[in-house]
Amino acid sequence: MTAPTWHVHLPALVEDYLYDFGKVREFYNGDFREPAAFERQTERVRSRQIARDDLAAVLSGQNESYGCGPETQGAIAKLARDEACVVVTGQQVGLFSGPLYTIYKALTAIKLADTLNHRGLGSFVPVFWLASDDHDLAEIDHIALLDKDNRLREIRCPTPSRESKVPVSKIPLPRDIGDCLEQLKDLTLDTEFKADILGSLSEAYQPGRSYVEAFGRWMTRLFKSRGLVLIDASHPRLKEMGREIFFREIAEGSPSTRRAVAASERLRQAGYEAQIPLHEGILNQFYAERERQAIQWKDGAYDIKGLPAMATKEDLLKLAKEKPSLFSPNVLLRPLYQDAVLPTVAYVGGPSEIAYFGQLKGVYEAFGLPMPVIYPRKNVTIVERKIDHILKKYGLSVPDLWRNAAGAIGEITKQEIPDSVGQALLLARDHLERDYAGVKAEILAFDPGLTESADRAKGKMNQQLDFLQKKVQQAARKRNDIAVQQLHKALDNLFPNQRLQERVFNIVPYLIKYGAPFIDQLDQAIDIDVADHQFLVM
Q1: Which terminal CB of the chain, N or C, has fewer other CB atoms within 10 Å?
Q2: More confident call, 430 vs 348
Q3: Which residues lie closer than 8 Å to 259 by C-beta, 6 or more apart?
Q4: 115-124 b/e with 16+ CB inside 10 Å = b?
Q5: Position with higher pLDDT, 72 vs 10
Q6: Which residue, 520, 3, 2, is CA-closest to 223?
């Protein structure tokens, strides 16, 4: 089954990346639509020296701790045994897996790896990068859903100060995580799948576990049979494998900033906006002994907030060499760290990631790494059958609501009485006036004393027509009230808070409604060869 599609308006750089690649070719390392781009990148990656045995050992231990199945362990073994390459995607470790697009990222990576395996270029493994070094709690500590009454609700997990810069890998889930699960139970409909889904979720999200471990266990539950490999980037051995990135950023005075600034200027000259703001005098990595602190530098001296004294370049280089786990990359350097550690052929990213990779080609060159092919994650809106019925009833499509929801609803409800009914009532009044004049004349010719009775009878007939017209108006308003309610229900489902559904809702309520096979339905419906937004009617 192939889902219907729609071309969603995107920033100019992303639009051209998807639909007119020739305009942006200089900023990227290959067109994701060209098989030759993946072949070239595969050859480059295989020429690199990677500590594959160490990598496989770390991944095996991490994924086993999440409860992975034999498919995932087999995929990890391929990295060492078959020198497999990887298709990587990643995301912040949001509560209960975060927004829907997290799921779409994972599915896209799995399907792309499978596609590359069938092309005969070698062995490819899907990898999901857990952004465990991230410290933005406000982005990950909540989910949104529609409750039983179709009201948009939020479930938020109490956390330490949201201003804290402690990496999420070091933040344990509070005891109140149980209250979040109870809220989820209370807000969602009872189904035959509910107990199993919430049971699995509660097994993953236990008090005391880190956000990263809970997320890893839950994602493993969702994708256990698909060979998806999860990687916790905060592992000390991985930091050792990627230490050269941290070392060179310090030793060469942030070559990443210089190259990214140059790319940003070329983007602006070409008419595009740069996605990542850049700051001179700040390294694109943090010092992260406890909290992540920016590293500022000037004239060879380095200042780290929270440390008692200025540090020298030699101090930092020694730390980068001996204790690389004390460093954490920011958004600009994270892909470099990722691809220093992994044999990456392709990265699956959303629109904002496609945009910021446009600033990174020169950065990869500066660090001697091959930039991966950037593959767009699939964009999906789930259209449940009850919502699809509402759209068809009023002759609307999902894009109609996206473009102008108020206008679409107003157009449908602007007339209280249909033209045909209004015309019939006017015609009845006209007939009453014409026909009753003759009736009254005959009555008065028979008995002039019946004038008052004749007028009273006509008045009652007009009253009955007035009464009928009021009833018709009430019925029309009721229908319009129902229409407004139904259309707002559709809007809340498909475009909550004027945002794409995939950026707001969480997967769990859908799993409660449709069971674990819902992931299979998504997998079958998503066409990874389509760049347009896709709609899945359930």
Answers
A1: N
A2: 348
A3: 362, 363, 365, 366
A4: bbeeeebbbb
A5: 72
A6: 520
| Separation CA 89–CA 449 (nearest Å) | 94
CA distance 235 to 139: 22
pLDDT at position 503, please? 96
* 153 touches 144 (CB < 8 A): yes
Quick: pLDDT tens for 459-512: 787 787 777 766 666 666 566 778 888 999 999 999 999 999 999 999 999 999
Q: From CA 9, how far away is CA 142, in angstroms rounded?
A: 28
Give the residue from 394, 342, 328, 410 showing the smallest Cα distance to 372. 342
Amino acid identity for residue 132 in this structure:
S
Q: What is the Cα Rg of the chain in Å? A: 31
Are 135 and 328 a contacting pair, CB within 8 Å?
Answer: no
The ranges assigned to domains in the chain are 5-242+329-379+504-537, 395-498
Structure confidence at residue 382 (pLDDT): 97
Euclidean distance between the first and the last CA atom of the chain, given in angstroms as a whole number: 12
Q: Alpha-carbon distance 128 to 286, whole Å?
A: 22
Let me know the angle formed at the C-alpha of 135 by 215 and 333, rounded to the nearest 5 degrees.
100
What are 155's strand-pairing partners?
143
> Could you tell me if residue 181 is left (phi over 0), alpha (psi between -120 and 50 degrees) or otherwise beta?
alpha
CA distances from 266 to 23, 26, 263, 359 (A): 12, 10, 5, 9
128, 333, 311: which is closest to 242 by C-alpha? 333
pLDDT tens digits, residue range 224-254?
A: 999 999 999 999 999 999 999 999 999 999 9
Distant-in-sequence contacts of 413-419, Cβ < 8 A, 24+ apart: 413/480, 413/483, 413/484, 415/476, 416/473, 416/476, 416/477, 416/480, 417/472, 417/473, 417/476, 418/476
- Point out which residues pair with 506 in neighbouring strands: 99
Structure pTM?
A: 0.89
pLDDT given at position 380: 95
Please report the pLDDT score of residue 291 as a whole number.
87
Q: Which helix (H) or strand (E) holds 274?
A: none
